[in-house]
């Protein structure tokens, strides 16, 4: 989608430190990491947020979760623990309206979040 930052990273028009890609999702390092491991997993297809998910997206989002699990293992945080966050809408401070899973790990994470 035009003017979407993460579509730009997916297409290669905007640089991104991509650590994983397959036919339906990709993952790249967050530009402003909040933990030693902070990856963003996104579908290649533009979906604005959880609030805009449709039935046809279920497989892709389920796959994104599996990819997050695999990346957590590859980045050494499976045993220590990790968090998957999907901010949605203004109250959750979603700043990029292309659905993304934050994968955070490598330190003890506070709960509840701010
Ligand atoms: P959220 O607030 O949940 O919408 O998270 C958006 C995240 O995207 C935030 O943690 C910072 C990250 N981000 C913003 N711009 C860029 C960028 O140009 N490149 C990368 N890699 N990450 C970005």
Domain module tally: 1
What about the largest sheet? 5 strands, antiparallel
Radius of gyration: 14 Å
CATH class: Alpha Beta
| N-C termini distance | 31 Å
Poorly predicted runs of 5 or more residues: none
CATH architecture: 2-Layer Sandwich
The whole-number mean of residue pLDDT values reads 97
Bound molecules: 2'-deoxyguanosine-5'-monophosphate
Tell how many strands the DSSP assignment holds. 5
Q: Looking across the biggest beta sheet, what order are the strands in?
A: 1-2-3-5-4
Number of helices: 2
Helix content range of the residues, please?
10-25%
The CATH superfamily is HIT-like
How does this structure look, described?
- The longest helix is centred in the middle third of the chain and has 17 residues, at 58-74.
- The model has no long low-confidence stretch (mean pLDDT 97).
- This protein has one domain (5-105): HIT family, subunit A.
- It starts with a helix and ends in a 9-residue tail after the last strand.
- The protein is an alpha+beta fold and 114 residues long.
- It has helices at 5-11, 58-74; strands at residues 18-21, 25-29, 37-43, 82-85, 101-105.
- It has a five-stranded antiparallel sheet with strand order 1-2-3-5-4, with helices on one face.
- Bound molecules: 2'-deoxyguanosine-5'-monophosphate.
């Amino acid at each position: 989608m035009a003017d979407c930052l993460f579509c730009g990273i997916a297409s290669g028009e905007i640089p991104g430190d991509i650590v994983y890609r397959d036919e339906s999702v990709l993952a790249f390092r967050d530009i402003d990491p909040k933990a030693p491991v902070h990856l963003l997993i996104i579908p290649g297809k533009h979906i604005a947020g959880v609030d805009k998910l449709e039935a046809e997206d279920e497989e892709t989002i389920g796959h994104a979760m599996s990819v997050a699990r695999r990346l957590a293992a590859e980045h050494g945080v499976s045993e220590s623990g990790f968090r998957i966050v999907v901010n949605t809408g203004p109250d959750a401070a979603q700043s990029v309206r292309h659905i993304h899973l934050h994968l955070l790990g490598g330190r003890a994470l506070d709960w509840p979040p701010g």
